[in-house]
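User: Please predict the structure of the protein below. I'd like the answer in structure-token form so I can feed it into my own downstream comparison script.

Assistant: Understood. Taking the following sequence of 424 residues as input:
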Amino acid sequence: MTRDDRPQNSFMFTTCFRAFAPLNSVLTRPLPLGRVGRTSRTLLLGSTLGFATLAPFSPLAPLFPLAPSLAGQLNCEEAQGAQPQEIANVPAPGGTSKTDSAKPFCAKNDAKDTPVGGIGRIAAAMLCWSFFAGIWFVSITMPAALMWSLATAKWKLTSALLAAYCFPHVITMPSLPQSCSHAFWHGVQGWFPELEIVHVGEPEPEPSSRERRLFCIHPHGIYTLGALTLPNHMPEIRLCIAPYLYHFAPAFRIFAELLGVKLGSTGPRDLKHLMETKNTPMAIVPGGFEEATITCRGTERVFLKTRGGFIKYALRHGYDLVPCFTVGDSDMFSNPQGAWKFRWWLNGLSIPAVLPFGFPVLPLLPKRVRVKLAIGAPLHMPQIQNPSREDVEKHRKRYLAALKATYEEAVQGTASAGRPFEVW
């Protein structure tokens, strides 16, 4: 550029800037949120993210370029009809693995997808996972926020937090339309290159006609993807979560109720009441926060050496156990190991002692790995009114053997093949 050109270019730039000055003042003007509280701003941001997540499935879908990819997954599921739900409830006959027919949705994402569809799917999945990670983070940190507000005499914030704690116990949130819940679940599952559900294991020689079943999901991992996947394909299942999440994590509970997930608590009184009223099917994560603590990439670990409570309840109330193992869950996050005494102490306070690091850009998002949820054959449990310690230990070993068999069959052909099955 010569010196003669500079004044001309400067004049053109000045003219364009003056022409767009009114629009520039509007775009750069700060939003009038000065009088809005932090809680309201957080809710506003969450609502905006939620709308952006579900927008591709709303009547305004033509306005969003991400709609074709995820809407195509919904159309693929509708084309399969009602068969996936039936397969999710009935074990595969003859003990053969139902890899192809047991997939309840088109989860494989291969190179045949168009670039626009692949980018749209990943972008929508990132929105869904970001929203879920935000809910998880808020649920974990709310008790600390309550203690801080009490210590600093922030009475308005304290009142708001206490009201939030009481809200799900007083008011039951109505479920969102089914299209919205399907949109979220497909967004979550679309983050992974492949996510499939298979039935493995051979049924017992004398299968039980009892309809009461308790699905036991391993490993816990950070987010327990198996527990996130199962309710979407078995809407009738009741997911029993830790008492802390059920009673003292209102954001998590409200979020689950909006998605239509039936929740319960693994607390002794709550679980006893559910089993006495013959709620079935139900699902639990027996390893709990301790199993989340020992999560480590490149390993397959379960926390069952001192876990016998769910065996005792199953014997007392006559529930068959269905072992489930999510292959790939342990590879989604890096989680530093060590300092066990301190971490076990935190687990005793119902605090998950984890330091997860997943996707490099957004560490609270999992890494994009291939996932397989393996559902084993039901393990018949005799009904014993007052099971002794010997009874519990005997059937705990039976369950552990069934879970190991489910794991060994599920890891074939996956990145976890050849890894030892560690029982802590």
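That's the full token string. DSSP finds 16 helices and nine strands in the chain.
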